[in-house]
From TrEMBL:
This is VOC family protein. Residues 12-128, 142-257 form the VOC domain. SUPFAM superfamilies: Glyoxalase/Bleomycin resistance protein/Dihydroxybiphenyl dioxygenase. Transmembrane segments: none annotated. The lineage of its organism: Bacteria, Bacillati, Actinomycetota, Actinomycetes, Kitasatosporales.
Amino acid sequence: MTEAPIRRRPGTPCWVSLMVHSLGTTREFYGALFGWTFVTVPGAQQFGPYVRAVLDGKEVAGIGELAPGRRMPLAWTTYLATDDADTTAEAIRGCGGTVGVGPLDAGEEGRLAMASDPAGALFGIWQARAHTGTAVAGPHGTPVWNELVTSEAAWVSTFYRSVFGYDLEATDESGEDVVTLRLDGRAVATLHGVGEGLGPIRASHWMTYFAVGDPDATARRVVELGGHVIEPPWETAAGRVATLADPEGAVFSVVRSATR
């Protein structure tokens, strides 16, 4: 029996992807770290070599290769679901954001655009067709949470509410500037204002959290595989977390428990 297509409420994080210089090296790293295998997506090759990471037959993330000589900061990109990429792109522009790529079709898979919020954080929007996004969340190596790290959460949260209709829940835990984005009462992402804590190299950005059984062991494994530890494991209200980077410098976080 064919499974019914997944429809995600617009604004729900639905996919994460990464563009790199060496697809082969990156596949080896994440395959060893998370147990991913990879499938080539023929229709996506119009944008260059592209594969999807698979766990137990379920697609969890995408990795593409940049054109030779193209230099740009490497980062995991969060995609937010939409029912109409063109209408959402117009809303992004109208609310002070920027649409840098698209909207355009990705074969029969869906329609996408790449945009940035008024603070400069890059994100994608995805109108699903054949490809509905991340198929599983929870097991080791799956993306389980997305957080925007920016200078001031309250300011940029108005942009996301205007575009996607989120309900905003501001919290002030230990003086932290955190806004939770909710849809139908369910938390789907957080915005974390860090003020001057943003570095000169990493400006406002979305952070992908992957589930792992042991963040300490994962941090050690990252180093063994040629990556780096950006922030050693520490305890948070959401679980034990570490911030890491792959061999090409793309930053991501891992968390032992992502219960929200």
